[in-house]
């Protein structure tokens, strides 16, 4: 069956949103690669977990929830890179929809980066997001980065809740978090419990697990998608490869049960199929092209 609900609006598009999943306990500052699903966009964010008290520099700080949290900083003198981190979203951001990014943040009680002159900014990327780039001072200098919004200034040494409401004019697969470029000072933010959801959405159609099928799967590049008899004005199939790149989109304005996709131009491999109706993601499933 299919359900009309607002569950999708509350679904967090981030994976590992509380920073609790890791490959191994970090033993000092940095070591962002210990954190699952997230990547360092501009070096070097800090990852904290297991027991924050092992880091004398942040002896005053503990996570907002559980043990995992992230630290990012900016130091305009010298002009090194302003730290940033992000991830490939579970579902892409789509045009003409309003989203809400919320998080908890604080500054250290004392020491380096305790200024209160700046805030958190967020950016999106369409097809590719760099890793540990040293070519630029700030993520906004990358031509592919789409500015989405900034928070209020982070001024409290206790955990506080912040929100950024935004929309985008394009489909974005990647999302990054950094320090706001304007009025940069020597600042350091701790961040925890992030979420990214659709804002103020009612009656979103959500497909059940058994309502979408691909056949054949694996296939040689041509396959059928079987959907329930739903009502929509515009249907889109987005195909994302194994490294998160959007490689093909197909639009269909006809309400029908069966849709044939021709993807013969794509190489062999594993892909994600994202089905969207009227711009809203409904379902994601995997398929394999093998000849």
Which SSEs are present, and which pair or pack?
Elements: E1 2-5, H1 7-10, E2 39-42, E3 46-48, E4 69-74, E5 84-93, E6 98-106, E7 119-125, E8 146-153, E9 160-167, E10 172-179, E11 187-198, E12 204-207, E13 213-215, E14 222-226, E15 235-240, E16 246-252, E17 258-262, E18 269-277, E19 280-289
Antiparallel strand pairs: 1-12, 2-5, 3-4, 4-11, 5-10, 6-9, 6-11, 7-8, 7-10, 13-14, 14-17, 15-16, 15-18, 18-19
Describe it.
The structure is a single chain. Strand 13 (213-215) and strand 14 form a beta hairpin. This protein has a 5-stranded antiparallel sheet with strand order 2-5-10-7-8, with no helix packed on it. It has a 5-stranded antiparallel sheet with strand order 3-4-11-6-9. The chain has one helix at residues 7-10, and strands at residues 2-5, 39-42, 46-48, 69-74, 84-93, 98-106, 119-125, 146-153, 160-167, 172-179, 187-198, 204-207, 213-215, 222-226, 235-240, 246-252, 258-262, 269-277, 280-289. Residues 1-9 and 201-210 have low confidence and may be disordered. The protein has 291 residues and is an all-beta fold.
Strand count: 19
Arrangement of strands in the largest sheet: 2-5-10-7-8
Which percent range fits the helix content? under 10%
**Helical/strand content category:** mainly beta
What is the terminal-to-terminal distance?
A: 34 Å
How many alpha or pi helices? 1
Structure keywords:
291 residues; mainly beta; 5-stranded antiparallel sheet; disordered N terminus
Q: How would you concisely characterize the structure shown here?
A:
With 291 residues, the chain is mainly β. The chain has one helix spanning 7-10, and strands at 2-5, 39-42, 46-48, 69-74, 84-93, 98-106, 119-125, 146-153, 160-167, 172-179, 187-198, 204-207, 213-215, 222-226, 235-240, 246-252, 258-262, 269-277, 280-289.
């Amino acid at each position: 069956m299919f359900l009309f609900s607002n569950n999708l609006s509350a679904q967090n598009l981030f994976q590992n949103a509380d920073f609790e999943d890791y490959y191994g306990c970090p033993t000092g500052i940095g070591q962002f690669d210990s954190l699952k699903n997230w990547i360092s966009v501009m070096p070097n964010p800090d990852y904290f977990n297991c027991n924050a008290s092992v880091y004398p520099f942040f002896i005053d700080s503990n996570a907002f929830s559980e043990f995992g949290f992230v630290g990012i900083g900016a130091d305009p003198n010298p002009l090194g890179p302003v730290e940033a981190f992000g991830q490939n979203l579970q579902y892409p951001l789509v045009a003409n929809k309003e989203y809400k990014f919320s998080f908890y943040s604080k500054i250290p009680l004392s020491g380096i980066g305790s200024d209160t002159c700046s805030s958190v900014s967020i950016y999106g990327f369409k097809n590719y997001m760099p890793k540990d780039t040293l070519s630029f001072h700030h993520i906004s200098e990358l031509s592919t980065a789409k500015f989405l919004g900034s928070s209020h200034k982070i001024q409290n040494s206790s955990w506080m809740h912040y929100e950024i409401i935004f929309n985008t004019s394009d489909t974005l697969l990647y999302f990054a978090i950094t320090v706001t470029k304007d009025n940069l000072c020597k600042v350091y933010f701790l961040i925890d419990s992030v979420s990214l959801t659709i804002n103020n959405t009612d009656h979103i159609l959500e497909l059940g697990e058994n309502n979408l099928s691909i056949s054949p799967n694996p296939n040689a590049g041509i396959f059928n998608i079987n959907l329930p008899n739903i009502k929509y004005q515009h249907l889109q199939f987005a195909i994302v490869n194994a490294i998160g790149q959007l490689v093909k989109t197909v639009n269909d304005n006809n309400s029908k049960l069966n849709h044939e996709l021709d993807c013969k131009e794509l190489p062999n491999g594993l892909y994600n199929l994202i089905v969207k109706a009227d711009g809203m993601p409904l379902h994601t499933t995997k398929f394999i092209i093998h000849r």
